[in-house]
């Protein structure tokens, strides 16, 4: 049996409303101890999810705020336990007094994610949904929020459950075969099994393919800004961020190390990487920087290749563009300092290459919107993303990968005519891996790590 926990569920600092949340067997009596209803009735006598106006009391029983209280009893609550919520004014002092009064009545301060963890342990959410709660709170873009909301509502869980259920059928079949060893798996049976496992394999491969997008959605799209020294890379970074993050001077070779910052552009979360201008240089420090710039291109889902419209095109621009096309997944050719000259950056493109070209000025802001539209078009949201049917972290991808390997091994075993118990081992291995995905068979230390990521009060 768990103890009763409480936390301030709203963010730090002043705000219109601040919420104290409680969960556990003593949640309702504890809330009653710090709350006096205007109608004189106790919360224990109050029906679920009804708001009651009253006073919040400090540990000495003195009123410190006018608040709304509500209770939800087990199992119909977020955590699956008895819960209570006190909606106070968002004064940090009031909330601290309320929390202090609760702890005087034996309620413990909750740790990070403890409410959601209880919801998971009580079967209110599976592990993917619990992760979606954290993703939703952390979402930095609308698309990220939409995907997390879909995942929270169970879109991904349903996909995984379909695969799991198919495997349950296969496993049941093999158990029957093992229990009645005299009856061979008939040819028809083997064929349907093959079909079911094949279907599971396809479904899991499709799911795994969503991880690339999921990762970009939650972690950001790695976007390298490259170009010759003085092309205006750091100026573009600063213009996109809206503040002077990187040093800008007219001295070529100003940026020597890579500078990384997150930014939302065209509704997409980008991890902008400003790099050292690429040129042959004798300076040892700058050379290391140039090497890092080339490296940044390797991991880039997007490369912005900058060329100065006010300077004559140089062979280095062409080489750099070729390198970006070779290493990065998507490339935008950006003509900079448009306030100074119009230029013809297209001339740098190899004859049969088509990449979007944007002309802009970091100084006047002209062309930044076009860059935004270009990025949005290069990374359109797809249906799976909108519905939240995608794997969003390495843990999920790892478990799906393990399940897929086991299913493939089961298919091979089936094709090789191996004994049923051997196939069964693989099928059950796949079920175990899917159980890690949903949290059904996940280790305690793994869940501890997941919930440590949450804020207190969620
Ligand atoms: N007129 C004009 N000048 C610009 C613009 N963008 C950058 N500059 C100037 O160009 C020079 C170089 O800008 P940076 O942003 O430092 O260029 P960089 O590519 O980061 O240069 P390195 O770090 O040396 O590789 C500075 O003097 C900027 O003020 C622009 O849009 N218009
Ligand atoms: Mg720079």
SSE topology sketch:
Layout: E1 5-8, E2 15-23, H1 27-33, E3 35-37, E4 52-57, E5 63-72, E6 83-90, H2 92-104, E7 108-109, H3 114-121, H4 127-138, H5 142-152, H6 155-179, H7 187-209, H8 211-219, E8 221-227, H9 233-241, E9 259-265, E10 268-274, H10 284-298, E11 302-308, H11 315-327, E12 330-336, E13 357-359, H12 368-378, H13 383-387, H14 394-415, H15 420-438, H16 444-452
Parallel strand pairs: 1-7, 8-10, 8-11, 11-12, 12-13
Antiparallel strand pairs: 1-2, 2-6, 3-4, 4-5, 5-6, 9-10
The site of magnesium ion (MG) has 5 residues, from helix 9.
Keywords:
6-stranded mixed sheet; binds magnesium ion; binds guanosine-5'-triphosphate; single chain; 458 residues; 16 helices; 7-stranded mixed sheet; alpha/beta
What features would you describe in this structure?
This protein has helices at 27-33, 92-104, 114-121, 127-138, 142-152, 155-179, 187-209, 211-219, 233-241, 284-298, 315-327, 368-378, 383-387, 394-415, 420-438, 444-452; strands at 5-8, 15-23, 35-37, 52-57, 63-72, 83-90, 108-109, 221-227, 259-265, 268-274, 302-308, 330-336, 357-359. The protein is built from 16 helices and 13 strands. It starts with a strand and ends in a 6-residue tail after the last helix. It is α/β, with parallel strands linked by helices and 458 residues long. Helix 6 (155-179) runs antiparallel to helix 7 (187-209) and helix 14 (394-415) runs antiparallel to helix 15. The strands form two sheets. It has a seven-stranded mixed beta sheet with strand order 3-4-5-6-2-1-7, with helices on one face. Strands 9-10-8-11-12-13 form a six-stranded mixed beta sheet, sandwiched between helices. Helix content is 46%, strand content 17%. It binds guanosine-5'-triphosphate and magnesium ion. Residues 233-234, 246, 254-255 line the site of magnesium ion (MG).
């Amino acid at each position: 049996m768990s103890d009763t926990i409480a936390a301030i569920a709203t963010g730090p600092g002043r705000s219109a409303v601040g919420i104290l949340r409680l969960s556990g067997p003593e949640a309702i009596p504890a809330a009653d101890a710090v709350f006096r209803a205007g109608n004189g009735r106790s919360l224990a006598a109050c029906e679920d999810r009804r708001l009651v106006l009253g006073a919040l009391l400090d540990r000495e029983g003195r009123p410190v705020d006018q608040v709304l209280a509500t209770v939800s009893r087990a199992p119909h609550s977020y955590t699956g336990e008895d819960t209570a919520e006190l909606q106070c004014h968002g004064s940090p002092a009031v909330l601290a007094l309320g929390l202090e009064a609760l702890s005087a009545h034996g309620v413990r301060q909750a740790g990070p994610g403890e409410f959601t963890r209880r919801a998971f342990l009580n079967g209110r959410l599976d592990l993917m949904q619990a992760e979606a709660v954290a993703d939703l709170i952390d979402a930095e873009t609308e698309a990220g929020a939409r995907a997390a909301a879909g995942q929270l509502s169970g879109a991904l869980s349903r996909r995984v459950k379909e695969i799991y259920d198919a495997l349950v059928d296969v496993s049941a079949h093999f158990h029957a075969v093992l229990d009645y060893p005299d009856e061979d798996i008939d040819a028809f049976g083997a064929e349907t099994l093959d079909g079911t496992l094949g279907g599971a394999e396809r479904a899991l491969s499709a799911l795994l393919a969503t991880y690339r997008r999921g990762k970009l959605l939650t972690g950001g799209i790695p976007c390298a800004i490259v170009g010759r020294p003085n092309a205006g890379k750091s100026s573009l970074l600063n213009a996109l961020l809206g503040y002077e993050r990187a040093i800008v001077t007219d001295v070529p070779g100003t940026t020597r190390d890579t500078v990384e910052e997150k930014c939302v552009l065209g509704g997409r979360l980008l991890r902008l990487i400003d790099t050292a201008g690429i040129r042959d240089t004798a300076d040892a420090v700058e050379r290391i920087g140039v090497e890092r710039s080339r490296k940044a291109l390797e991991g880039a889902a997007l490369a912005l290749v900058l060329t100065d419209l006010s300077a004559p095109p140089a062979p280095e621009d062409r080489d750099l563009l070729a390198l970006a096309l070779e290493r990065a997944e998507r490339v935008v050719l950006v003509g900079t300092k448009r306030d100074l000259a119009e230029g013809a950056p297209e001339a740098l493109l190899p004859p049969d290459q088509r990449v979007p070209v944007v002309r802009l000025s970091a100084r006047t802001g002209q062309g930044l919107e076009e860059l935004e539209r270009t990025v949005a078009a290069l990374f359109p949201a797809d249906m799976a993303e909108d519905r939240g049917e995608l794997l969003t972290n390495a843990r999920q991808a790892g478990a799906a990968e393990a399940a897929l390997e086991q299913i493939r091994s089961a298919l091979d075993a089936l094709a090789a005519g191996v004994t049923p118990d051997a196939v069964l081992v693989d099928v059950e291995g796949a079920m175990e891996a899917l159980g890690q995905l949903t949290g059904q068979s996940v280790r305690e230390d793994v869940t501890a790590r997941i919930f440590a990521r949450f804020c207190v009060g969620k």
